Amino acid sequence: MPDQTCPHQNFTAQVVTTRLTDGEDGPVTAYSACVRVWCADETCGQAFEWIGLPVGLNPRGPMVSFDGTELRAPLRPAGSDPDFGLAGPGHSVRVLTD
Asked: Are 44 and 82 in contact (CB under 8 A)?
């Protein structure tokens, strides 16, 4: 059911690009864009959640933060080797249910 307290007509987004390295001070092995979105209406400010993605950080595919409010999407420079960013193992969190 849609949120009835605010029409969410204005948005603010924050994008932070990070470098994933092979160890501390190691070479850059991948990049990730972390994106957060929230309602910019003065009386609201509600964060939006990304849906349908697993929790974690993975240089091979998009994932979300544990609370779902941050999209973590891998990216690479245009024209780079198609295998760039695919060497790291990545991390993820799985929720097991009965």
From this structure: no
Q: Does residue 35 lie within any of the structural domains?
A: yes
Beta-ladder partners of 74: 32
Domain coverage including residue 67: 11-77
From CA 50, how far away is CA 71, in angstroms rounded?
6
What total number of domains does the chain contain? 1
Banded pLDDT at 89 (limits 50, 70, 90):
very low
pLDDT at 1 over 70: no
Planar angle of CA 13, 42, 65, nearest 5 degrees: 35
pLDDT of 70 higher than 90: yes
In a domain, 23, yes or no: yes
Ramachandran region, residue 52 (left: φ > 0; alpha: ψ -120 to 50; beta: rest): left
pLDDT, average across residues 69-98: 68
